Amino acid sequence: MKVMPASEFSLKREVEYGSPEQNEAVQRIIEEVRQDGDAALRRFAQQFDGVNVGDLRVSSAEIEAAYQQVDEDFLTAIREASVNIRRFHEKQMRTSWMDLQGDGSILGQVIRPLRRVGLYVPGGKAAYPSSVLMNAIPAQVAGVPEIVMVTPPATAGVEGIDPHILVAAAEAGVKEIYRVGGAQAVAALAYGTESIPAADKIVGPGNIYVALAKRYVFGAVDIDSIAGPSEIVVLADGSADPAYVAADLLSQAEHDEMASAILITPSEDLANAVRTEVELQLQALPRREIAAQSIRDYGAILTVSSLEEGVDAVNRLAPEHLEILVADPFQYLSRIENAGAVFLGPYSSEPVGDYFAGPNHVLPTNGTARFSSPLNVDDFLKKSSVIYYSKEALLRDGEKIMTLARHEGLEAHARAIEIRLEKEGNRNGQ
Amino acid sequence: MKVMPASEFSLKREVEYGSPEQNEAVQRIIEEVRQDGDAALRRFAQQFDGVNVGDLRVSSAEIEAAYQQVDEDFLTAIREASVNIRRFHEKQMRTSWMDLQGDGSILGQVIRPLRRVGLYVPGGKAAYPSSVLMNAIPAQVAGVPEIVMVTPPATAGVEGIDPHILVAAAEAGVKEIYRVGGAQAVAALAYGTESIPAADKIVGPGNIYVALAKRYVFGAVDIDSIAGPSEIVVLADGSADPAYVAADLLSQAEHDEMASAILITPSEDLANAVRTEVELQLQALPRREIAAQSIRDYGAILTVSSLEEGVDAVNRLAPEHLEILVADPFQYLSRIENAGAVFLGPYSSEPVGDYFAGPNHVLPTNGTARFSSPLNVDDFLKKSSVIYYSKEALLRDGEKIMTLARHEGLEAHARAIEIRLEKEGNRNGQ
């Protein structure tokens, strides 16, 4: 791993917008689905997945059968993780509120769940049961009455949906599942077909075609943010165990070649020890080629003169994941301004959060932690303002409202007030 | 106004994406600002506004001088409106929280303001002091330490910034103001120049060039939603005063030719009376040509068999503004699923909310109330997850985390846990 002063490092990866050909292909697929509905979905399943799809919807019998195909350890782990994720997200729940005014007026905010949310789940090796939980449970906690999942009917030509995905969906409370993938699945969720009613929001990871399709339908429906490659920054002092630091860096690096794993430390000894440990542990990994390339291209050990300078570097990088492996980690928490998730102390290895503890693993990447948040219950709620003005309040405030409206040249706004002041004033005998 | 059954009506206006020429112009402007900084801003001020800009930043002397140029009524109204807006948005404020586990672990959510927010304010007749309040105050309530405003240095070749805008900004607590407008202002806020540090989020309305520029820089910074034309739906029964209904419909229609004003009612008498009143009141409006075209193209009186059917029609339309003018308006509130702001009863005319009551007037348009919310304090907050796992918790949960990681083929994730279980287990003598 390269070692350099933190002040000389910057991490910038371009956002993937796809080639013109990919964009055209996605646009064509979406328009075909809008036009031909289910027939288009079946055509694309044949064309892209090599599958003749019968029922688009996965039957409850298939979901039940999936439970027979997963082992007990997996089921136990998924169930406990679900409990933890649900508990953490329930703490985020909000309620509608009213502000009762002395003059009889009532102002408020109605907070409601979205009605219908679509969850995209990729096929094959990218089908992560943990992602099903992380995307579906916040929507369920928000109270979304209809959560629907779409996933490809086949992987590399082999028909079928991974039973672990079906089990994770069922455990997260998702029972409406369709075998449709790619841009065509996004189109179906955005505009609806005969079999698949349109949703209000689409979430979940996918390949470039899915990402481009989400971007294309945004506005007709809401979408989540489009995730970039994964990142971890470990801020550590001499008290940290270099083997832990190296293992945690590699757990990000194995994700893909563009993932980034960075150590920031004032300790030269730790820097050297981690460098050695990374090389050592790397050799034993099944995904060592991916991890090695990620470490080479986007990994670094950044030296700082103090942990305070390290914190500044963290805030500049705004990492998706931040581990603080120092003697008293909480003393730095209030100075961390930009990070998706903060892992404190030696036992909070990043996979604890990826899979189990409860907080969401869908996190802002590529520096967007400056202004974005982990996926959370708010992402599945919407608000409406409520204004109930009393006659007393209107008679009191009317002139001021008219002053502002007339200043802005909006006479009809002023008259909507004026006509009431005239009539109500008269009715009052004023 | 045309009258038709609600079931036959649909309102769909296309989102404005600009011409290829407009998009290219915006892209070129942004790249020039990235490259040349302040020099580019001055060049564009000369080219587009016909102004030689001296200091880009508006001095505090200019802001103080602006107070001398606005009249007392305006200042009083702006100040009272600010108090109301601040009060309503303070109710939305949230705090960081912790969930302390029995095993010593701590999970939580840190909630912080964004560091720096840029507010775009258009020049000329589109310069609305009320919009300055509605955009700046929620950011201020959220605790954003740096709120900066940009606005064109001139309108139609006449140099200067409307003093009402400067006063509104000062009243909302905004003291950092730059004379720069258009796509170049958006570029400055997104990427920074010598004089204008980059922001984390850009909010506020603007013309098509500003909207395209916001779309272009999204990702480098956050942006608010891009507003479509304004809309009002009035749901009314025979108890409503037709003059009030007509006045409120016209107050939206005067905004622009694409604004939409719709009455939904089961009362034939009201439908007829409103139709007559709209024609009558229209004649007396200074902006009658705009309002008449809006009413003709996007206005309608929709007849329904019952208020319940009317509520269904409202939810289908998902209007920006909804007025409920019926005998007991609160009885319908819980059935309204999709609306930006709901105005209840005869004294809650829509301009009450536009200017004064406190709720925000930046609202979801074009059906997006299905999944979007009024501008609110959350839009200026970001969250980070916090995970502090205890040794006890890790030893208890480690195997399950490894099960899930290995199932997903992420061996390095499993090993980051395993290496801890081995070492800590041994240290414990387990």
TrEMBL record, chains A, B:
Binds 1 zinc ion per subunit. It catalyses: L-histidinol + 2 NAD(+) + H2O = L-histidine + 2 NADH + 3 H(+). One of its GO terms (molecular function) is NAD binding. It comes from Paenibacillus mucilaginosus 3016. Its cofactor is Zn(2+). This is Histidinol dehydrogenase. Zn(2+) binds at residues 252, 255, 354, 413. Substrate binds at residues 230, 252, 255, 321, 354, 408, 413. The lineage of its organism: Bacteria, Bacillati, Bacillota, Bacilli, Bacillales. Gene3D superfamilies: 1.20.5.1300, Nitrogenase molybdenum iron protein domain. Keywords: Amino-acid biosynthesis, Histidine biosynthesis, Metal-binding, NAD, Oxidoreductase, Zinc. PROSITE patterns: HISOL_DEHYDROGENASE (PS00611). It holds the Pfam family Histidinol_dh.
